[in-house]
Design a protein that fits this description.
Layout lengths: L9 H13 L4 H19 L5 H4 L15 H10 L1
Length: 80
Amino acid sequence: MKRTTIYLDESKLNKLREYSYKNKLSMSDTIRIAVDKLIDEKEIKKGEISYKDIIGIAEGPESNNISEKVEDFLKDKFKK
């Protein structure tokens, strides 16, 4: 990890401290979690959605209904 400095206005800094304290996290951990969440949301918006994010959200034809065969689908994917 690399050390960095950020500037926050006082109200945001106080909210960050409060959130960190309530969740028993360091402020650094809280910031890292927020950055990870932001990056993950941006990747999803770019269309980089994992197959795990979409399993079971729609019905397919009866002959090949993946939403009813989730376990088999995941077993096949993770064997590779």
